[in-house]
Amino acid sequence: MSEHLAESLRPWLQQPAAARIAHLQAPRWIGTQAARNALDLLQACLDRAPALRTRGVMLIGPYANGKSMIAERFAIMDRRRAETERNARRVVLVQTREGSGLVNFYAGILAALEAPLIRTRDTAAKAEQLDHLLRQLKPRVIVFDEFHNCLRGRNRDIEAIFAVLRRFGRDYDLSPVLVGELTIFDHIMVTAEMASRFQLAPVPRWSYDEAYLSLLDSLEGALPLAKSSGLSDEPMARLIFELSEGLIGETVAIVTAAAVAAVRSGAEHISRNSLRDLGYIPLSQRRQTVIREALA
């Protein structure tokens, strides 16, 4: 009955429903080809020779398509290496703060480095503190998740941030990784000088093809349900794809919600009817007027 499951997942069928649901809802790494390609590019930034003009990576794709998970995976891999080798971490993962300007930009990096808080609006003081920490810690890669957050201000503020990124490469041998939406690509490609400093790691929206069906097979093998659901079979796969709109984050959310419902109901498998019963609204439709009015 459990042949559809990965062997390591089969013992989970003996666990109480609450434990299985907690396992289903936990974040999980999905090693798609795009994710593996992106990790290879990020690793190359760590393995490169020292340089005065470092190159970075743009990790670009639509919302809810796994970019942040790739960035976090990369940082976790470095942390584990550092713990094993009893060495310093080489990757800094920054959650880019909302708002434009160098003050917010520096503050996000300092927070990632767990630096003590100094005068809030003093840009020069923050720059000096950051320079001191970079000289001391000597990281090799700095990853800016949601980098598009700092590209919504004045052109001179954006250019100042790009100037800092260039200086990081020259002064500290740092490779920047910019994670986020298409607006990052548009800003970088404005000039050939900036475009030459970044390689593209695309995380595109999925097409309905064999790769997507394989993704559904992988998901089914990771869900501790006693019965097979046939997620990659037509028309089940087509329904999941339409609801998810080709976004991996949405695909995982839909399948997870349906699996949790299957455990709670005792059905132990996902069906087209149970998917429809979720009442799942595709991302592009959630802002429609009719839906908004129904919430008023």
Automatic annotation (TrEMBL):
Pfam family, one: TniB
Name the UniProt record assigns to this protein: TniB family NTP-binding protein
InterPro entries xrefs: P-loop_NTPase, TniB
Phylogenetic classification of the source organism: Bacteria, Pseudomonadati, Pseudomonadota, Alphaproteobacteria, Hyphomicrobiales
